[in-house]
Amino acid sequence: MNTISDRRMGKRQKKLGNKGQAPLFFLENAFRIGFLMVALLAFFLLVNMYISNKMDTNRLEAEVLANRIIYSDTIMYQDAKTSRIYPGIVDMDRFDEGILNTNIDYQNKRHIAANITLINNQNGAIVGDIYLNKQQYAELNILTMQKSTGKGSATHYIKNYPVTYKNTNGYDYGTLVIDIIVPNS
Amino acid sequence: MIRRLGKRGQEDKIYFLIWELIVLVMVIVALTVAVRGISNNTNYWKRYQSADLAMITELTYAGQGDFVVNYNMKQMKMTTTSKALLVVTSGFGMLSADTLSFQTFLKSSSFWVYDKSSDEDKFPQSFMFAASKNIKVLEGNHSTDFLVLYRTGDTLGLQERYVTTASLCPTAITQKDMTGLKFDVIALDDESKDRASYAGIMLKQYGASANPSSAGKELVIFLSTDTASGGTPGTVAATKIYYYDGAQAYGEKLACLMGLALKTHLPDKTFETIKYDGSFDADAGFIGVKDNYARWIILKYDKSLDRDNFGLSIKEALIEYYK
Predict the structure, then answer these.
(1) CA A34: distance to chain centroid?
(2) Minimal CA–CA distance to A156: which of A166, A167, A148, A164?
(3) In 3-state terms, what secondary structure has residue B321?
């Protein structure tokens, strides 16, 4: 009577072609193969758990862009004599899509995009509405509206700032809504 | 099994075991290489540096005025895990290669970061920032672990060292004829006596130390050893420059200039300027002397600083200060 060990090794050549030989071999080694797979999986899981090579900068990118819009002379009022910029006072002469895209110029347009809306606080009317990277905003916005997720999609970050702006009757209070959309990858 | 030794086909068992061992070795090597690749992967840090520099650049565009950002990569070291794996695969000699240093390219609207050589690195990392029509970008690349990102006026650039000393330090007017002034360097401990004497000799040719009776006591520099560093290997000791200021930033300007001069001559060392916090109030050698001079400054220095460059830096800082 042959042992399992004999069948596996010493007499393998002679027994080739015997019915049920291959399933028997896998059956014999199932535990060994299973254990190896679990060990390898655990090994890589542990390595990846302790070493992270991923970097999510989306939120930071959005914050940086919002700060650039608020604190730079892009749409904010700048005193012509002192060159001082007044963050929070919107210069309606500069509230223009062309000026915005020239002063904040992402040369690769497939990047971050934003929609800036100025709303009158008293009546809720939209005073101005301009886009940074308008085409990109439209494309990514469709994805987010469809609730698409993952690397191919994008994430919205909406920031509200109380501002003052000048209209024909003088100064008015408003809210600057900066809707930033950042691709997930 | 023993009874079966010598039977035909028995050698197949040996071959099987040999093959098993070969496969085992191959799996161990493959795993080690894979894990080393993950842990030793510089892509993360290249990505980190490019993103960080790009976003700092955006912030300098947002702000008003000039910016100088000292970007020190020395603090970024490989993880213990990667070191251990380097030991496994490459021997103990690799332990010294623990500081990351890249080649950084500033382009018109992006940062590109390569490993040491851009020719060999097939996987550079880049990050974009938004350009502005009002700001001109001076493109260039640098291979160093210390970068200076600056925006002065309408220019953005990247350098390996400080831009210019004058534009960084406070702009208090301190111009004076040095020949009528008396400068002294006083050691606050025995270990500093040699340095104090050396620096004093270097300053004599500029001030009026040769004829102290007729000279106004302008400046005294106190030297004290930083006992915390003690020359212990692996200890990062920063030389501290203490200054005192009234309404004007005279002291801060001097401390700043001294820090810059020291950094120029001793680029591997770190320096920090600190507004005087009373650390030496218990020292009679300091308290009893400082009020005899119009200005004073304290250098609590790292003992490993080269004496000659230390003295030279003090001299240059004073010349710049009174220029």
Answers:
(1) 38
(2) A148
(3) helix
> A5, A51, A63: which to substitute to probe chain B, counting the most B Cβ within 10 Å?
A51
Structural tokens at position A181:
């959309």
Strands A154-167 and A126-132: unpaired
Buried b (16+ CB within 10 A) or exposed e, B172-182: eebeeebeebb
- Closest Cα to residue B229, out of B237, B239, B219? B237
Q: Which amino acid is at A32?
A: R
pLDDT digits (tens, 9 = 90+) for B160-190: 765 554 456 776 678 788 877 888 889 988 8
Taking CA–CA distances from A100, the nearest residue in chain B reads B132
Non-local CB neighbours of B32 within 8 Å, separated by 6+ positions = B85, B88, B89
ipTM: 0.75
Provide the residue count of chain A.
185
CATH number of B178-322: 3.40.630.40
Closest listed residue to residue A53, CA positions, set B67, B268, B123, B94: B123
What distance lies between CA B138 and its chain's CA centroid? 23
pTM above 0.80?
Answer: no
Are B109 and A83 an interchain contact pair (Cβ–Cβ within 8 Å)?
no
**What is the nearest CA distance from B48 to chain A, expressed in angstroms?**
8
